[in-house]
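Weekly puzzle thread! Below is a chain. First person to post its structure in token form gets bragging rights.
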Amino acid sequence: MSLVVLWVIVALVAGILEVVVPAFGFIFVTLAALATAVLAWLQLGLALQVVIFAALSLALIVALRPVFLKRLGPGVPDRTEALRGKLAEVTESIDPVRGTGRVIVEGHDWAARAPIPVATGSRVRIDGADGIVLLVSPV
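Winning reply:
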């Protein structure tokens, strides 16, 4: 198998990994492998190809990844982020010692925590989330 084909295979594998693994870094390895395939086609030595591939991969990740991440924005917001600042009704009293409590917000039931006890039927404001547990404070 020629080195050109080998570098194209590396590029394909990295491209597939970019789609499968949400890291946004394998695309730069893909580009470096394709550039190295051109160098292999020009019949540069294998050692030089490997050095250029490694250097180019690292340079692209360090130089371009932050730029693209900034332009693409923070990504898809999670479901709890959209609830921040909204009001909810406590359906199961919130006990900060036991870590129990439930609220209804926009018709959906959520586990909730608060720094102080909150009685059933009280209104609370959603301050954030810890995973899928809403962090709330009394209104």
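Puzzle host: Confirmed. Bonus trivia for everyone else. The mean pLDDT is 91.
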